[in-house]
Amino acid sequence: MLNIGCHLSVSKGYKAMGEDALSIGANTFQFFTRNPRGSKAKEIDPSDVAELLEILKENKFATILAHAPYTLNACSADAKTRDFANMIMEDDLKRMEFFPNSFYNFHPGSHVKQGTQIGIEYIINMLNSILKPEQTTTVLLETMAGKGTEIGRTFEELKQILDGVTLDSKMGVCLDTCHVYDAGYDIVNNLDGVINEFDRIIGLDKLYAIHLNDSKNPFESHKDRHETIGEGSIGIDAITRIINHPKLRHLPFYLETPNELEGHAEEIKKLRGAYIDD
Length: 278
What we know:
single chain; 9 helices; 10 strands; globular; endonuclease; hydrolase
């Protein structure tokens, strides 16, 4: 079965996200833990969460994924910004225990001309100060397009972070198709080669999720602008190969395309039609 969903808003509540997912034919979803451009988080209502968890169980949902706010920059040159990132992630991971055994995804951040190595050390230090042996959440580093001074453009950079984290069993990677294509990994013409390179450098056992997005920009553009499925430079044929690839097909896929619920429903229907069931 294709495990696929999209990004949903938590504004109506947690149960409502489960209902929205079902309404568009999804069996997983992603959501922001708090305001994506700020710090305010929705108060957690345990009864609302319980109703969502029941929906997930009854409908055999794949693992859901929470996304950290974009304002979280663990490798900023500004100490206050790094402290803010630490505070937000620590609070988010406490909140995520309401949703046991879920994923929590974050952008590694931008080193702001300090240099990649310094930025990577900041990220490692934050993770080592926050991760707890008892947590059930797996924290995922997202592959990035390489815009500006972003860290995470290469598999080697992500590997350095993973190697530096003491509780490595709590860590993994979320591969964003738009980002890796814009970063220079040719998933259109050499998908097997990219997968093999990921496996050689990081290990496919660390790949837990895929953000499934087309790209508005051409290969190796480092632009990071998502497009609806089949309407960008990656294209439906390449995306079909991705969801059916024997080393990827078992993973959960999360759409972050520029669409509303109705549009996501059409994308999910199209992708389910292109998926070859075992």
